[in-house]
Amino acid sequence: MIWFFLCVGLLVAGYFIYGKFVERIFGPKPELATPAITMADGVDYVPMSDKKVYLVQLLNIAGVGPIFGPILGALYGPVAMLWIVFGCIFAGAVHDYFSGMLSVRAKGASVPTVVGEHLGTAAKHFMNLFAVVLLMLVGVVFVLSPAGLLANLTSTDLVYWIVAIFAYYILATIVPIDKIIGRFYPIFGALLVFMSVGLIIGLIVSGKGFYNTGMDFSNLHPTELPLWPLLFITIACGAVSGFHATQSPLMARCMQNEKSGRFIFYGAMIGEGIIALIWCTLGLSFYDSTEALNATMANGGPAAVVHEVSTSLLGTVGGILAILGVVILPITSGDTAFRSARLIVADFLKMTQKPLVKRLLIAIPMFILGFIISKAEFGVIWRYFGWANQTTAVIMLWAAAAYLIKEGKLHWICTIPAIFMTAVVITYLANAPIGFGLAMNVSTIIGLVSTALITLAFLVKFRPSQLREAKES
């Protein structure tokens, strides 16, 4: 458990040290009025307190990703915790901070508009389509996973819960943000934190430790799946996740001061990283071996691990409460995923969202399509979601790097994680069955060479002399 607390300490230190460094480079301007003030409409642009915005942001970004991903990542051994810590501090939290703050500076614009502003019109049109597809996949994943947990918990038919959750999503997507999301989600966020801490305390009291690994950072996966690049796709929301770039604009429309950005955006990602560490530690410690953990997942996936760990460590009542906390996560991210999709489509169509009928005009067809997608196999949806999620993060990181270059600021804080994640997603696509199915050595070469070419093209396009020439012309 010393390793767990050391990792948590590193995340907290990362917030105060590296987070402050990132904030200084961006340069928030507290004297500027935020979109929540200048564009208040009572629907999406609604001023809220920092604490409330932080808790809503935490729930928005923390779906099943920081639970299911780290449980799957635990199969690789303690090395998964290293990725959570360093990925979160140097990539994920940086990504979230810039996706939120660049949205604030762009009047609360959604991620396609932000990307288009800094990478060009072609990138904007691509992101309009790509972001909506990602959000639809997220919404469906975050219907099926909680529906499965609730069906197991209540012995009720799965279809009933799918319909019930979709019905709630429709309501939460179209009503003003402060009526449901702003009112109840801070309470759910506090419950999530409480139950996560309760589980780690239960693990400490149980006396369980890492399963016979010591601090072995080699690949311990029982089926010998490769660390590269799968670990960096498997653990997304707890380390770096493009889905967050679609969610941050929701709170960019509600925060009242730019100085709050580090607490809200960088800080919420650090909070999610701690949740991911808790569930990775539970996966590493509760079972005697990676084989035992894998055997449980073979009979119900990560949801079976959540159920078994929660009820064993906290008893029946405490376990049910913990499971309900886990259910809340995807539901509170799924509805905001559909809400973000509605706003992206509305921005593209230039359709005001104040009248209810116009919100319904976009939301209803979107939910019908989502219900159709939910009929596909969950495993297939999850794999496409994983790749699309990390690819969105790549695009957002390159957009943030371009912004920093244009502003004459230290762009490497975004460029370096953008380079790394570009290599990850290209290698994964080349190797994975959902992609080209090539051999790993060939896929890695393709990933590295492609990344080198993309990086060179980026640095040439956004070199200072080129930007000066563009401004003069």
UniProtKB/TrEMBL annotation:
One of its GO terms (cellular component) is plasma membrane. It is found in: Cell membrane. The chain crosses the membrane at residues 75-98, 129-152, 158-177, 184-205, 225-243, 263-287, 313-332, 360-381, 387-405, 412-430, 436-460. Its main location: membrane. Residues 4-144, 151-280, 301-426 form the CstA N-terminal domain. GO terms for biological process: cellular response to starvation. Keywords: Cell membrane, Membrane, Transmembrane, Transmembrane helix. It is a multi-pass membrane protein. PANTHER family: CARBON STARVATION (PTHR30252:SF4), INNER MEMBRANE PEPTIDE TRANSPORTER (PTHR30252). Belongs to the peptide transporter carbon starvation (CstA) (TC 2.A.114) family. This is Carbon starvation protein A. It comes from Aeromonas rivipollensis. The lineage of its organism: Bacteria, Pseudomonadati, Pseudomonadota, Gammaproteobacteria, Aeromonadales.
